[in-house]
Amino acid sequence: MQISRVLRISRAKLQGDRSYLLVFVADTGTYEVFLPGMGYPGIFTGFGPPSLRSQQTANSWVMDWSSAELLALHIEQVMDTAGDDQPTALLILDALKGGGRREAACASPDNEL
């Protein structure tokens, strides 16, 4: 699977209490990036390795952090297509670029961006 160009962000949303899903359209199809939050109730410890899933084939791949960072840089270029999901998309991309270590990316709705 090779993505040459990201065209737009379709959706970015919180899944559960600390995981995220970002859906984007690329030149090769529509994909989902799942970013699993780690920890337990009340304690956020970071993010686990993200995964990429093709909506056309349902094939999925666990991404290493360097690939996730590269993908985030490409998705960031179409941030203006995220609409109302832009704040969440920014949070997801920040976490992908930070290797999942950024405390600022905590999924708590009480945290400010």
Q: Give the H and E element order.
A: EEEEEEEHH
* Overall pLDDT confidence: 87
Q: How are the strands ordered across the major sheet?
A: 1-2-3-6-7
Q: By helix and strand content, what is the structural category?
A: alpha+beta
Number of helices: 2
So what's the oligomer here?
single chain
Q: Return residue spans where pLDDT drops below 50 for at least 5 consecutive residues.
A: 103-113
Distance between the termini: 33 Å
Query: Can you summarize the main beta sheet?
Result: 5 strands, antiparallel
What is the C-alpha radius of gyration, as a whole number of Å?
13 Å
Question: Can you walk me through this structure?
Answer:
By secondary structure, this protein is α+β, with helices and mostly antiparallel strands. It has helices spanning 65-76, 86-97, and strands spanning 6-15, 19-26, 29-35, 37-40, 43-47, 51-54, 60-62. The strands form 2 sheets. It has a 5-stranded antiparallel sheet with strand order 1-2-3-6-7, covered by helices on one side. The protein has a two-stranded antiparallel ribbon with strand order 4-5. Helix 1 runs antiparallel to helix 2. The chain is globular, with a radius of gyration of 13 Å.
